[in-house]
Amino acid sequence: MDYANDPELNGKYLGTITKDFAAVSDTLQEASAQIRKRDISKYPVFIFARQEVPLGTLLVNADEAGLEWHVFASYLELLVQQGIVGTEGIEAFQQTYKDADEFCCLFVVDEEFTNFVFIPYPED
């Protein structure tokens, strides 16, 4: 799996993901900081899915927040345990992973598109 931003992330996804990301970016940034601060992982990952998925912990319920995407908090090691990232892909993932203070690592899960995407946090 390619862990860099996918150029195939078309406008259909980009628009709704960006809109929902803007609404929850402060929450995600704080969760990312806590995951790293508590030494849970150096590689927080937030799953964006239109339906509930058995990945990570539900952080933002789309229905309750008026969003299109549910957001689940996870991290690299858990995604390896769940078979999303193969053990042979750990090093590539770590090398591709961007500065977690500046970028949010999303794992977008939908019927037509499943991939990792890095989105910069909004400037304060």
How much of the sequence lies in strands comes to: 15-25%
Strand/helix succession: HEEHEHHEE
Question: Whole-Å distance between the termini?
Answer: 33 Å
Number of strands: 5
Number of helices: 4
Tell me the Rg in angstroms: 13 Å
Broad shape = globular
What proportion of the residues is helical, as a percent range? 25-40%
Q: Main beta sheet, described?
A: 5 strands, mixed
The side-by-side strand order for the widest beta sheet comes to 2-3-1-4-5
Structure explained in plain terms:
There is one protein chain. Helix content is 35%, strand content 24%. The protein has 124 residues and is of the alpha+beta class. A 5-stranded mixed β-sheet has the order 2-3-1-4-5. The model is unreliable at 1-7 (pLDDT under 50).
Secondary structure elements and their pairing?
Blueprint: H1 11-37, E1 44-49, E2 57-60, H2 62-65, E3 70-75, H3 76-81, H4 90-96, E4 103-109, E5 114-120
Parallel strand pairs: 1-4
Antiparallel strand pairs: 1-3, 2-3, 4-5
